[in-house]
Each structure stands twice: as C-alpha cells, then as structure tokens.
Specification:
With 233 residues, this protein is of the alpha/beta class. Helices cover 20% and strands 16% of the residues. The chain has helices at 31-38, 51-54, 83-91, 130-141, 193-206, and strands at 12-14, 17-18, 47-48, 64-68, 96-102, 121-126, 147-152, 177-180, 210-212. The strands form two sheets. Strands 1-4-5-6-7-8-9 form a seven-stranded parallel beta sheet.
Length: 233
Amino acid sequence: MAKNTGIQWTDHTWNPWQGCRKVSPGCANCYMYRDKYRFKQDPTVVVRSSKATFSAPMKWKEPAKVFVCSWSDFFIEDADGWRDEAWEVMCKTPHLTYLLLTKRPENMASRLPADWPLKNVWLGVTTENEDMLHNRVPILLKTPAALRFISAEPLLSKIDLTAYLNREDMETSPLDWIICGGESGPNPRPMDAEWAIDIKRQCEQTNTPFFFKQMSGRVEIPESLNVRQFPQQ
C-alpha cells in the first residue's frame, strides 16, 4: 500500500509542519522525537516545513491516501497561522484522500474550514488505552466528517469499542474504520495479542473494517491478526 512511507495504511505522508509536545501515554516513545534528536533538533518546537514540502500534494496526480502530520499534530495550537493554507491544499486536490489523526480532538471544532466537511478528508483520533478512548472518541463522533476512524496504536491495554461501533441506539453515526497495532522502535512496550484479537472480534460483529498493522517490536503477527481491511470510499 505505502508508496513513500513505511506506514502500511497510507500511500503518502505529508508534513506541512513538524514538531509536537507529548500529551498522553501513547506519546512516550514517539519516533518523531527520536529522529529530531538524531538531527540535533528540538522536537517540541513546531516549525513550518519548506515551501516544497508544504505544497507537495499539488504534484501528486494519482488518487491516493495521505496521512497528514506524521511528525506533528494537525490540530496543534502552534500551527494556527498555517492551517488555512493546508486546508486550501486539500481543497485543491480532491483526488487525494487526507487522513487527519489527532491526539487533540478538543481543538477540532474551532479549527475546521467554513466549507466543512470536506469530502476528501477523514478524521481520526488515537486511542491507546481506555482513558484516551472515552476522552477522545465522543468528541470525534460529534464532529461531522466524510469518514471517522481510530488508531489504537500503540495499543497499551484492552479497550472496549462497543459504545462506538454500529448500534441502533447510538445518538451519532458509528466509527467507520479501526486501525490497531503495537509499539515499534527500541524498547517497545508489550502488547497482548488478545487485546487486538478482541478488537478484531468487536469489528467483525459490527461489520467495521479492521486493519492490524503490527505487533510490538519484532514479534511476528499471528495468523488470526493478519487482517488489513479498508473502508469503502
């Protein structure tokens, strides 16, 4: 699937800005911090990327999925002065599907464009444990979007998605896609395969697409988790 990235559930990554600050347990071993330190840069300082990088999607002519801000958070406050330009790039490239994955859903409502929702933008939140699941998903589900998803990665505990999947008594539309995986990089925190298997089971029961990315570290993916489904567009 990936074309210019190692992230299997996307084709491209696009970083109009870089840098972020840790806000929850999932951030503890952030790969962006490791890479920034290697280049002797401060990962907590949010900076606008070069003009070429900022406008890169304008050159991508084939339909593709684009993960936005893999080295930051699209809704981080520091980027308020640049975000309108990023929205403009997305509007001008309707053949691309943009995936915005945030750990700051409380910032979304006040930072969406006037013509929201955009048909080619999916919204998602990171849900590494039960606390983050129940803190972030209700905000996500109250926000209109072409498609809404979660990334339970790095999965740090068992989580119960029952309240947010396809149920007749839900007041809002359910989650459309579930991504799950363990932590990568050096000294990864362990993920119990049963946590992921349970999420997969919940998705099967509600016909929700499920994408399993990886186990923790170099642990081989068991056959029961060798599932990589995408939502229908």
